[in-house]
Amino acid sequence: MNRIKSGRLACCLKLVRQEGLAIQQPILANPIGCFTTETGTLNQGNHLWGYSDFEHRMRRRKILAEDTRWPAFFPRLTQNIAGLATGFFANEREEFRMNDAVTKLRV
Predict the structure, then answer these.
(1) Within 10 A of 73 (CB to CB), how many other CB atoms are there?
(2) Among 93, 81, 11, which residue's Cα sits nearest to residue 46?
(3) How far is CA 4 from CA 11, 81, 105, in A?
(4) What digits encode the pLDDT tens for the residues 28-70?
(5) I need a labelling partner for 64 at 20 to 30 A (CA). Which of 19, 47, 48, 100 fits?
(6) Of residues 44, 38, 53, the one with CA closest to residue 91
C-alpha cells in the first residue's frame, strides 16, 4: 500500500486519471484496478497491474522508466505521496485466472 499525504488523495487520483494512465497503460498494458482505503488506516492506495510473470513485469517497468514522459510525470505524482511500496503476487494455480473468477461472479 502506498501512503498518500493527508488531504492529497483526491489530487493524487485525479493526476493519475488525467495524465498517469495515458503514460502507463500502453506500456504496462493490463490494469486490474486502483484501490483506496475506506476504513482502517486511511490515505492509502494501491494499483494492480497484471503480468504473466515477474520477468514480464521487469521488462514492462524498464520500458516505462525509459519513456521520457514517465520521469517527467513521476515527481509531480510523488509530491502527493508519503511512502511507496511495491509487491508481486504470483498465481501458482494455473487453472485459476482472475478473468475466470470475474466471469463467474457476473453470472
Answers:
(1) 18
(2) 81
(3) 10, 4, 31
(4) 988 999 999 999 989 999 989 989 888 999 999 999 999 999 9
(5) 100
(6) 53
